[in-house]
Give the backbone structure.
Amino acid sequence: MKRIAILVSGRGSNFEAIARNISAGRLDAEIACVLSNQPEAAALETANSLGLNAISLPSKGVDTDVYAEQVCAALAPLNVDLICLAGFMRRVGKPLLDQYAMRILNIHPSLLPSFPGLHVQLQALEYGVKFSGCTVHFVDSGLDTGPIVSQAAVPVLDTDDADTLAARILVEEHRIYSDAIALVLGGSFRIDGRRVVAAP
Ligand code: GRF
């Protein structure tokens, strides 16, 4: 069974969706740990209540690369095949990127390359796009720049504010993240330039 580590910072609804899909037999994987850089993250409580290995590893005041080394050390005994960032609000440092090259995924609530970074639903609204959505991508050293595994589009309605748009995008996030994880864990894809191409 392939083992995933889920890195979170807050609410953890994407983590919960992954856990639900695993329990329901829709995703063949095992959660090796849920690691939060924020000790107060609700996701840690949820992980505990589900009987999962919940790790609090505070990052406040810690240099990005030093923190990455700490994460590597925490994950080392867990035999992790894939790291899934799910609302993890810290940059991933080089030691982690090197050790898990092309084995780290992130979910981002816009159609990349539009609107990388923070507060992206508001950015999309203010820009006036008619569609936004979400993206699962491999993590590289850039900000939301790695090869794209999966995307889903969501219409932006005239009545939307950032919260209503975020809520509709979140429904799609919960759907596509588990599918993308299954694809990557299954290994039936190749990376051609920037393109992640599923094997026939
Ligand atoms: C999601 O919108 C995700 O795309 C973004 O941060 C949010 C995390 O939400 N990276 P949750 O913690 O998974 O509920």
